[in-house]
Amino acid sequence: MTTPNPAAAPPWLRRAVDSDAVDTTDTLSLARALRRSMTITGEPRQAAVLVLFGGSPEADPSTLGGLPADADVLLTQRASTMRQHRGQVAFPGGGVEAGDTGPIDTALREAVEETGLDRSGVEPLMVMPKLFVPPSRFDVTPVLSYWRTPSEVRVVDRGETDRVVRVPVAALLEPANRFLVRGSMGYKSPAFLVDGLLVWGLTGGILAGIFGSAGWERDWDRDDVRDLEQTLAAAGMSL
Question: Model's pTM, two decimal places?
Fold first, then answer.
């Protein structure tokens, strides 16, 4: 599947799939602030990431937004041996290659290469607006998807990736696991700390936007603002 099929979204994801409802304001503000702080020459490189949610197709009427107890999202953690961005957490994804037919194809191809998933079980629901990511100077297109038929995932290349994990959405929504990080240029990013994984930046912003738009969000302390570099160091990560 290389075209989005919003009608295939389970009831608990439908509000997020509504393109008028997804709020990426914080993420866009972060990306624009960073872009203004840099001297951009030439066209940004193009990339795509797979924002893949799994879980029961039925909504749970007893929870916010109908989120089922088994809902999760697929994340990867960059290898701790890498010289740059050591230990950072991201959605599967990467740069566009010549044979790709569009952002969905790029996101799925990269996810297969990084996690070994079976792409036939993934239902792309929505192609989200591009977001600029310095210092790599990528324009990244998130592809919101539902894992209709989950498959086994694993670390394919240990030289690049330490972990491939299906993180429970409930853990990310837990107020004690949420805060903001402030970078040296003054920008703030939504952040999550779950099972030793610090999720922030583009990944954290996309998740925060989806959580709010889908109606899953619980009250959390937005006054809890932590220094980015200190928080990364404590988690064994780097910029």
Answer: 0.91
Span between the terminal Cα atoms of the chain, in Å:
35
User: Scanning the structure block, which residue is given the tokens 């290389």?
Assistant: 2
Report strand pairing: 225-227 vs 197-199: unpaired
Whether residue 155 contacts residue 164, with contact meaning beta carbons closer than 8 Å, is answered with yes
pLDDT at residue 31 tops 80 = no
Q: Which amino acid is at 4?
A: P
pLDDT digits (tens, 9 = 90+) for 58-87: 999 999 999 999 999 999 998 877 655 678
Task: State how far the Cα of 41 lies from the Cα of 132, in Å rounded to an integer.
Answer: 14
Q: Is 230 exposed, middle or buried (0-12, 13-18, 19+ CB in 10 A)?
A: exposed
Q: What tokens appear for 85 in the block?
A: 């961005």
What type of residue sits at position 237? Answer: M
What DSSP string describes 85-152?
STT-EE-SEEE--TT--SHHHHHHHHHHHHH---GGGEEEEEEPPPEEETTTTEEEEEEEEEESS---
